[in-house]
Each structure stands twice: as C-alpha cells, then as structure tokens.
C-alpha cells in the first residue's frame, strides 16, 4: 500500500495527569520508497486495525457533532495546508479531547495512503514497550519497541469516498474496543462524525438472509457447504483488506450462474441491509454450516444456531430442534391427514 505522507507526534500526560501535551515532529516523512521502515510500520498498524472491532459512520456536516476536521481535510486536499500542519492540528485537538482518558505516553502516527484508486487517511496511537536486543558486541541489551499489535485508539477516513459526495454512511471508521468506550466517544467527537452502520448487527442480518436463501433454494449438503465457505472467505478477505462487503459482489460469488439471485432475494425480502456492509470478525468466525447424512436422514444447519434453536445432547447422542422449519411442519401435518 503506497505511502504518500506520514508523520509521528508524541503524546505525554502531565505529572498531575490532568492534561496531554503534544511534542510535534518538525516535518512529515518522505514517501515509502525513500523511507521503507516507516512504510513497514504504517502497513503493520493498518493490518492490526483491519482485524479490530470498529464503528463506522460519516462526517456530521451540521449540528453539535460537526467539528473542524472536515474543513482541515478540505484545506489539505486542496493543498492549502500541508500534511504536517494538518497532523499537528488533529493531534492538539485530540490531546484536548482525550486529556482525561489517556494516562500513558504514546506515539500518534498519521499516514496518507493510496491503494489503487482509493486514498485514505489513517491515524493511530501506539505505545512503546521494553524488549531485548543484541548489540554489536553480541551482548543482550534493552531495546525499546513499538507495540504494533495493540492500538489504543485509531481511525481511518476513506478520502476518495468522502470527496465523491457519496451517500455512503461508512467512509469513516474508528476503533471500537469494548473496554474503551470513553476513548471511542472521544474519537467520535474528534472526527466530528455521526455513527451509521452497526457492523455486528448488519453482519448477523446478512448471515440470516444467506441462511434463508440456502433453505429456499434447497441446496444439497455439498452445495450449502461450498456457498457458506465462499461467503466466509469473501468476508475474511474484505476484513484483511479493511474494506466492506458489497452485496452485489457477494451475490455474484455465491452463485456464478445466477449472479443476481442472492442480491434479489435480499431486496425482495426487505432485510433492510445497506449495499455495503463492514464485516464483523467475531460474527463471521462463528458462522459455518454443520452437515451430515446417514440412514436416510440429511441434516444441515448454520453453526451459530447451535445453542439457541438447535441443541446437541452429546451424552444421549441426539439433536433437539426447537424451531422446526415451516416447510417441514407443513409436510408433517399433511402426513396426518
């Protein structure tokens, strides 16, 4: 992922813990081909960010939520303000907004990146940890390292999507750790954004739509398993890339012979899904299909149903189905007639 601009500022809490101070870098770092180490750092932070739970939204243009970031970004993209000025302005506002939530020092990394036709702005707070290295005399010595696998706070703006005046509700994302609600709220205030997509809820609804589609089409065990693997693989690939799932693209992957079938099923049944859905890692990881066939009995169900509508009694070797499918109930009822 080409690095266009980057810079690192330091945040330090005061001795009394009541405020944060910013120690700014004098100038931004050259492009990736001139500083491969910085490019490696940013790519590592981006990879970590992609795997974390996030909130999604868009800039609030009016009202109390709107902040100065939009104006700063417009000035930067119009080359009326350089990257160093932009990053310092954001860092100082962040220090003011989060002065009561951060109690340890850290490095605030800013990066302007381009991947294909898409440009993004990334910011992340990373902390330093003590490690051990080997010096020129082959002796073990203390060596400070950046803990790139753990981000305290981070956010990313899809600059291309934002500038296109898209109606998308998700061109801004931010780290949304369960244990860091105050930090997340501070980031929302800093970004001047309004939350849009609930990624876990949207992902669960998508999986429900998929389960309904597989049942409606009456696929056999092998086809059901293959299509489930396709969905999960696509979701994980989008997670790795830090991009949302697109319903039309997913529909084409689920059924190449009828690329619009799954998409039409979603729209016709009115699940209320957005055209683009940020995949939720935890929800996706729990979604697989269990299948089995023996003695004239064929069973197939989504793994997330286990423990809710389906129970497995290991000691008595039996499955308990609490919600019998409507089509099956109708067939059983006709048998009694």
TrEMBL record:
* A GO CC term attached to the entry: bacterial nucleoid
Q: What InterPro entries is this protein classified in?
A: Nucleoid_associated_NdpA (IPR007358)
Say which family it is in: Belongs to the YejK family.
- Keyword terms of this UniProt record: Cytoplasm
Per the UniProt entry, what species is this protein from, by scientific name? Answer: Halomonas qinghailakensis
What protein name does the entry list?
Nucleoid-associated protein YejK
Q: Which GO molecular function, any one, fits this protein according to its record?
A: single-stranded RNA binding
NCBIfam families in the record = PRK00378.1 (NF001557)
């Amino acid at each position: 992922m080409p690095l266009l601009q980057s810079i690192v500022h330091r945040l330090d809490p005061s001795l009394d813990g009541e405020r944060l101070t910013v120690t700014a870098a004098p100038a931004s770092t050259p492009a990736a081909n001139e500083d491969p180490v910085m490019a490696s750092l940013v790519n590592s932070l981006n990879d970590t960010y992609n795997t974390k739970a996030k909130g999604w939204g868009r800039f609030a243009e009016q009202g109390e939520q709107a902040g100065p970031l939009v104006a700063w970004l417009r000035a930067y993209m119009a080359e009326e303000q350089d990257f160093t000025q932009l990053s310092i302005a954001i860092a100082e506002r962040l220090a003011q907004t989060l002065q009561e939530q951060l109690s340890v020092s850290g490095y605030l990394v800013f990066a302007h990146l381009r991947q294909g036709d898409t440009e993004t702005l990334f910011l992340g707070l990373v902390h330093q940890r003590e490690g051990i290295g080997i010096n020129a005399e082959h002796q073990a010595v203390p060596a400070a390292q950046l803990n790139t696998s753990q981000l305290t706070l981070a956010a990313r703006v899809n600059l291309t999507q934002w500038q296109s005046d898209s109606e998308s509700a998700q061109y801004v994302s931010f780290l949304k750790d369960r244990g860091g609600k105050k930090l997340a709220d501070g980031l929302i205030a800093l970004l001047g954004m309004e939350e849009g997509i609930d990624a876990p809820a949207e992902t669960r609804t998508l999986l429900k739509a998929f389960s309904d589609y597989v049942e409606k089409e009456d696929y056999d065990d092998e086809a059901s398993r293959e299509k489930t693997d396709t969905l999960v693989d696509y979701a994980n690939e989008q997670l790795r890339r830090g991009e949302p799932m697109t319903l039309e693209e997913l529909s084409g992957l689920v059924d190449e012979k009828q690329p619009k079938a799954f998409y039409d099923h979603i729209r016709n049944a009115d699940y209320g899904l957005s055209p683009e859905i940020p995949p939720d890692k935890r929800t996706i990881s729990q979604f697989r299909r269990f299948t089995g066939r023996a003695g004239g009995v064929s069973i197939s169900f989504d793994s997330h149903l286990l423990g809710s509508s389906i129970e497995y009694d290991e000691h008595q070797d039996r499955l308990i189905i609490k919600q019998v499918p409507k089509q099956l109930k109708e067939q059983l009822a006709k048998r009694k007639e």
